[in-house]
Design goal:
Elements: H1 11-23, H2 37-47, H3 52-65, H4 69-73, H5 77-83, H6 90-108, H7 121-129, H8 136-145, H9 156-164, H10 170-175, H11 190-206, H12 211-220, H13 222-228, H14 248-257, H15 359-371, H16 374-387
Helix pairs in contact: 1-12, 2-3, 2-6, 2-8, 5-6, 9-11, 12-13
Length: about 400
């Protein structure tokens, strides 16, 4: 008779055993919470699947090599990967860094995320999740360290360690989501467990067949090693995510599938294209109306360049306007001027040296002025006023 197969231990039993085994091989690292919110996010991009010391050196070199965060945003992935050579996957970290900076700049037109800490933890989580291209590990790490939330950050190394130890199933390993894992860990030991699990996951990524990894797996679940651990020299199979579903989750899965294609995109705003759900759609009826079947299309006509063909120039003859007919005017005889002779022994008339005219002469002058047009009269009157001396 064959021996009955022993039942597999539950997750509730394996998590405390894993925590105890990790404490025997690693020392927890205290997270640096003195950085700003955005710097915490950028450091988490470097920390994914890497040891804490390597992430600190890579992040410090990144800040020293570039003038500011805007220069990092417009730098290509290949150039950023050269700066992050200390990490196990420089291209992935460089792409995450640039996509996060681009998403923050498009949403706030600045490089600051301090507003995510001003409200509740749920508001901070929602703010981080709305950044286009941010990895789930970065969100969970910042929530657990900077926001003080109850979350377990899971990168590829941590998921591989949990799968090899039998804590999670193959479906959870492929999807990258472990529901309810944080409930099995007390709040006071959460940061310690997260640090130990991350170090274990970094060793799984770097040296899967190392002695430390095998000792921990043997202490947690020896049966899982026989079934899930790959043979020497063979890597662990990569996660096979399920097909994208409809809705918001489907869009996120489709964006994650395009990560490899975006590594060689040029820098700038066109580097990380915004999804369709981020751009507000115009109200219904605001666009151009489509013509029905059988109806002519309306709209502006296409621009057509016409050939430069010379046309004959016709010059119309100009006709001179008719000359106005001159009215005959009768010439009036000029009245004879009569000069009054001074009387014998009398004085000349008073005046400014001019001879006085007789009464008949005055009447003739008045008649002459009346015969002139009003413009001439006004002109002679003005000239007379100008010649007068002031009193």
């Amino acid at each position: 008779m064959t021996a009955a197969k022993q039942p597999q231990p539950s997750r509730k039993q394996l998590v405390p055993k894993l925590h105890k085994a990790l404490k025997g091989h690693y020392r927890p690292v205290v997270a640096n919470t003195g950085r700003s919110m955005l710097e915490q996010v950028l450091f988490a991009c470097c920390l994914e699947n890497a040891h804490h010391d390597a992430a600190e050196k890579a992040f410090a070199r990144l800040l020293e090599s570039y003038f500011d965060l805007n220069e990092i945003r417009v730098t290509t992935v290949a150039e950023l990967a050269e700066t992050l050579q200390a990490l196990p996957d420089p291209s992935r970290a460089a792409l995450a860094l640039r996509r996060v900076l681009q998403g923050v700049f498009e949403s706030t037109y600045s490089f600051s995320l301090d507003h995510a800490k001003k409200h509740s933890i749920a508001h901070g989580i929602k703010t981080l999740e709305h950044i286009h291209g941010i990895p789930p590990f970065v969100v969970q790490h910042v929530v657990a360290t900077a926001l003080g939330g109850h979350a377990v950050p899971l990168d590829l190394g941590a998921l591989s360690g949990l799968y090899l130890s039998g804590v999670i199933s193959r479906e959870e390993y492929d999807s990258g989501k472990v529901a309810g894992l944080e409930r099995l860990i007390a709040k006071k030991t959460l940061l310690e467990f997260n640090s130990l699990l991350h170090q274990f996951g970094a060793d799984v990524v770097v040296s899967l067949h190392g002695a430390t990894v095998k000792k921990i797996l043997q202490a947690v679940n020896p049966e899982a090693i026989k079934e899930r651990f790959p043979k020497r020299g063979e890597p662990l199979s990569a996660p096979n995510p399920p097909p994208p579903a409809a809705g918001k989750e489907g869009r996120r899965a489709a964006e994650a599938a395009q990560t490899a294609a975006e590594e060689h995109r040029p820098a700038g705003p066109q580097a990380a294209a915004r999804p369709a759900g981020k751009t507000p759609l115009p109200p219904p009826g605001a666009g151009p109306k489509r013509a029905g079947e059988g109806q002519p299309k309306t709209g502006p006509k296409p621009f057509v360049v016409k050939p430069n063909v010379g046309k004959p120039i016709t010059i119309k003859p100009q006709v001179a306007p008719p000359a106005p007919e001159a009215k005959p005017t009768a010439a009036k005889p000029a009245p004879a001027k009569q000069v009054k002779k001074p009387e014998a022994g009398g004085k000349p008339p008073a005046g400014n040296g001019k001879k006085a005219l007789p009464a008949a002469g005055k009447s003739a002058r008045d008649a002459k002025q009346k015969a002139k047009p009003p413009a001439a009269t006004a002109k002679s009157h003005t000239s007379q006023l100008a010649k007068r001396k002031p009193r």
